[in-house]
Each structure stands twice: as structure tokens, then as C-alpha cells.
Input
Amino acid sequence: MESKDKPTKEVGRTKPHKEDFKLDKKRLRNSFKYAGLGILEAFIAEQNLKIHTFMAILVIFAGFIFKISYVEWLVCLVLIALVLMAEFFNTAIEYVVDLASPDIHPLAKASKDTASAGVLMMAIISAIIGLIIFIPKLITFLGVEL
Output
């Protein structure tokens, strides 16, 4: 018979135990290590991730130059994160499709194309929003009167 003091991982248990809230430091450290390796792998392998990262750095640099507002910073940073996340998800999908379907298959192609389309759409929308934020700042910076 099981001791009432020991936590169990049984399904449907309603009362949490103190041990349920303890962090496994080794697992946590490994999760960050593997995430870092994933970032490095994607950055080495994916040309578009390099382009998106360069553009993100450009946007951050422009944000400082043009002194964008707090809300504009939030918008830019969220959009940067969304584009980079989309690129990482696309990369993961491509890897899984390649693993599951090493031969050329129309569904594999459709899956990869659709995932890439998601990144493209996010990048286009982000670029449009970026232009809405930065064009007025550029016009003011250059002293152009409309």
C-alpha cells in the first residue's frame, strides 16, 4: 500500500503535493541548453532566419535613432518575436517532414510550402506595420514637408 506522504503521479488526483511544485534543476538547465542548441542549429541552417535576424537588428537600431514611443517599441518587439517564432516553427516543420517523408511526396511539399507561407505572411504584415511606424519618423527626421 502507498504512503499518504509520498506524492504520486496518478491520473485524476485532485490534491497537489508539495513535491509537485519543486523544480528539477537539471531538467530546467537542459531545457535551456537544448533550446539554445536549437537556435544555433536553425541559425546555421536557415538563410531566412539570418535575414529576419538582420532585419530585427535594423529595426531595433532604427527604433533608437528615431526615438520611437513605448507602444511602438512594444509593437516592434512583439512583431520581431512573432516573425522569429514563425521561422523557428517553419524550420521544425521542415525537419519533421524531411524525417517522415525522405522521398519527394506532394503532401510533404504542400506541408513545407504552407509552413513557409505562414512565415511570409507574418513577415509581410510586420513590414507593413513597420513602415507605418517608421515612415512618419523618417519624414520628420529628414525635414520633408508634405
Summary: Residues 106-142 form the longest helix (37 residues). Residues 47-142 form a domain with the Helix Hairpins fold (CATH 1.10.287.3610).
